[in-house]
Task: inverse folding
């Protein structure tokens, strides 16, 4: 790939953020973005890094009418010794490829995905925050842009990457969050697109999320679409339940996102002596476990959310406290092990970390 870089004059660069611990999530964007276009004649062409700017697409672009859009989320971490680290970026590249195939888009080649991220992040390295718990969030996006109102896949595509320095995703930080178990609205159904990272899944989740937030909950815990019986995942995370030395997480049924943090937590937990079961788990089993004390902890996992302890579940109007609304030892242990690897503080025995440059 021969990436054209249109550098900005020094005086046009944005001032950096202030206190990095106050960044929140996705509010500040860096100076540059990466773009690449697809057309049937040229295939993927015109790889370019230029100023972070508005896009020009036609009002009949397929993405605007039929939601032909997918995205990814990963982070660049600054290690204390100055290395710039990515966490399993090829997994994001592969998932984006699969998401594209699911909604009939021209898939973006994984090698281009990795090279474009490496080049953009290195150019933007001054934006990687260094305070504890902060990182540079990377948002690769693919949209169908050919103008056509018939219901067909777009003929042209735009792939782009934007970057945003972030701190904690939840305002609570690494504190237990309150989840609302949604037993009316659903997020996705087996056979649908729940396992693809496509914007429509998030649009479908907004109303339930907003209602839950109005009532003071951080996010929704989704149940399966058929019976409203089995636990699926959280708004922006996969979900885990701890029963002593056994950890249970819903299996990849087709309606939940195959999280890369989820996959990593499973490997990490197994390597630390836990038994991990990927299986259907009903909300009744969860509530019964809380009541009889066998369910000792619960946490969510995701790139933005990292590992987030769950302090309580609200189901059918009742609040159920998990581990007395405290961060549990297993959650704490897995969180520390995971972030120590991500920030390059310990040796990575799994080969997850990719060093892409130096600050
Ligand atoms: N589930 C949903 C709905 C998500 O949006 C995310 C975030 O990406 C996850 C799960 C976790 O996936 P990952 O660990 O790959 O970030
Ligand atoms: C992520 O964790 O990367 C996500 O995509 C979750 C959310 C911000 C959509």
Result:
């Amino acid at each position: 790939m021969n990436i054209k870089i249109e550098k900005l004059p020094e005086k046009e660069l944005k001032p950096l953020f202030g206190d990095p611990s106050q960044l929140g999530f996705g509010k500040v964007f860096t100076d540059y973005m990466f773009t690449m276009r697809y057309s049937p004649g040229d295939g993927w062409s015109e790889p370019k890094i230029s100023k972070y700017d508005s896009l020009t697409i036609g009002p009949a672009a397929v993405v605007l009418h039929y939601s032909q859009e997918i995205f990814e989320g990963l982070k660049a971490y600054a290690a204390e010794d100055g290395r710039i680290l990515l966490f399993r970026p090829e997994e994001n590249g592969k998932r984006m490829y699969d998401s594209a195939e699911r909604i009939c888009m021209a898939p973006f080649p994984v090698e281009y995905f990795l090279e474009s991220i490496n080049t953009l992040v290195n150019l933007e390295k001054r934006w990687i925050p260094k305070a504890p718990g902060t990182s540079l969030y990377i948002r690769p996006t693919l949209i169908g842009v050919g103008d056509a109102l018939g219901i067909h896949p777009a003929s042209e595509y735009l792939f782009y990457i934007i970057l945003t320095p972030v701190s904690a995703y939840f305002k609570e930080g690494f504190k237990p969050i309150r989840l609302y178990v949604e037993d009316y609205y659903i997020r996705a159904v087996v056979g649908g697109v729940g396992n693809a990272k496509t914007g429509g899944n998030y649009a479908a989740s907004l109303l339930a999320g907003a209602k839950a937030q109005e009532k003071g909950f951080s996010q929704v815990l989704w149940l399966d679409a058929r019976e409203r019986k089995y636990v699926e995942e959280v708004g922006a995370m996969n979900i885990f339940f701890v029963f002593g030395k056994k950890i249970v997480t819903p299996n990849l049924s087709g309606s939940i996102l195959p999280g890369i943090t989820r996959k990593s937590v499973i490997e990490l937990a197994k390597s630390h002596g836990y038994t991990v079961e990927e299986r259907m788990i009903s909300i009744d089993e969860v509530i019964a476990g809380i009541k009889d004390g066998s369910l000792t902890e619960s946490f969510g996992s995701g790139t933005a959310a990292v590992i987030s302890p769950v302090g309580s579940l609200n189901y059918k109007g009742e609040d159920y406290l998990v581990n007395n609304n405290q961060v549990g030892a297993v959650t704490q242990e897995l969180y520390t092990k995971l972030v120590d690897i991500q920030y390059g503080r310990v040796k990575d025995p799994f080969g997850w970390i990719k060093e892409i440059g130096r600050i």
About this structure: The chain has seven helices and 18 strands.
